[in-house]
Amino acid sequence: MRIRRLFPFRSFRRGNGRGGNAMVEFSLVFITFLTMVVAMFEFVWVLFLRSTLHNAVREGVRYAITANPGQNGLDPAIKLAMKDASGGILTQAELDAHVRVEFFDPTCANGATCPAGGAGSAAAAPAEAGSVVKVSIECYDVSPITNLVRPMNPSGTGVSPFSLTVSASDKVEPFPGAPPSRGALAAPTACP
């Protein structure tokens, strides 16, 4: 009996070689597709964090222009409102390190260079009615999950973080009675 009758399919030696080509093409397309999915996830993660930080800053400004500061002062109350609005992303240590609250005089001809109440700096200016409050989160580091988007640190110890800065401002409404005390003022660390 002939072998061809037992095995009616074609011999592997006589194949056209398409099976190997399909495997190579699949691997190249899959690697490219996986890279695009991971890069898209990285981009969405950074965008989500920026949006959340911007929402926290807006809530801090809203609190600064309308709310009663409580016993500890206005700045700690603003930071607490920001922490509540951040959805658990901001810790107290990060708030102390990255948040800046400043009050400016809107009638000044030089604009944003004039602190409210004639203070030496906008970070130490009083919270007067009619002044402009600016709340910002400066140099908040966001570490990417992979190094597809950002290169490794020069020391080779990890991925270089993104540095986000967001801010919002508004005009302070008149408070009933005297302007509130700012409380403990802490300047954030400078961006590297």
State the main characteristics.
alpha+beta
Secondary-structure content class: alpha+beta
Q: Output mean pLDDT.
A: 78
Tell me the series of helices and strands, N- to C-terminal.
Answer: HHHHEEE
Helix content: 25-40%
Multimeric state = single chain
Describe the strand arrangement of the main beta sheet, using strand numbers.
1-2-3
Q: Report the radius of gyration as a whole number of Å.
A: 29 Å
Give a quick summary of the entry.
With 192 residues, this protein is α+β, with helices and mostly antiparallel strands. 38% of the residues lie in helices and 14% in strands. It has one domain (18-171).
What does this structure look like?
The chain has helices at residues 3-6, 18-66, 74-85, 92-98, and strands spanning 99-104, 132-142, 162-171. It is an alpha+beta fold and 192 residues long. It has a three-stranded antiparallel β-sheet. The model has no long low-confidence stretch (mean pLDDT 78).
